[in-house]
Amino acid sequence: MEQQPKPRQWDWPLCQSCARPLIHPEHFGLNVDGSKNSDYCCICFQNGSFIDPGLTLEQMIEKVAEDMVNKVNMPKSSADILARAFITPLKRWNEGSDSSASNERK
Ligand SMILES: [Zn+2]
Asked: What is the pLDDT of residue 1?
């Protein structure tokens, strides 16, 4: 049998806001009580709340796509598609849109 390259395994969770892999404990955001938040990364979430609570899904996709363009030299059009595919299903963008109703804008 030939040695095969290991399939890429996602043994670590992804941030449920920006899809960054949460590999090291310091990647995780913190809750108000200082405990680790297992859903979100430290870039999105600190001290029990989102660092940028007003960020929209579209803005996040844009941010992450730009990041990919810079980091892996991906064409912007591909990065957009990939970022959208990764980020749209995440928890932050899918849980009760009603909960943000307190933040009404008219
Ligand atoms: Zn994040």
From this structure: 61
Summarize the confidence of residues 70-90 as an average pLDDT: 96
Within a 13 Å sphere around the CA of 90, how many CA atoms are in the beta-carbon half? 26
Distance 94 CA to ligand 1 centre (A): 15
What are the residues whose beta carbon lies below 5 Å from ligand 1 (ion)?
15, 17-18, 20, 41, 44
Q: Where are the domains of the chain?
A: 25-94
Query: Any bridge partners for residue 46, and if so which?
Result: 49
Residue 45 C-alpha to ligand 1 middle, in angstroms?
7
Q: pTM of this prediction? A: 0.77
Å from CA of 96 to ligand 1 middle: 19
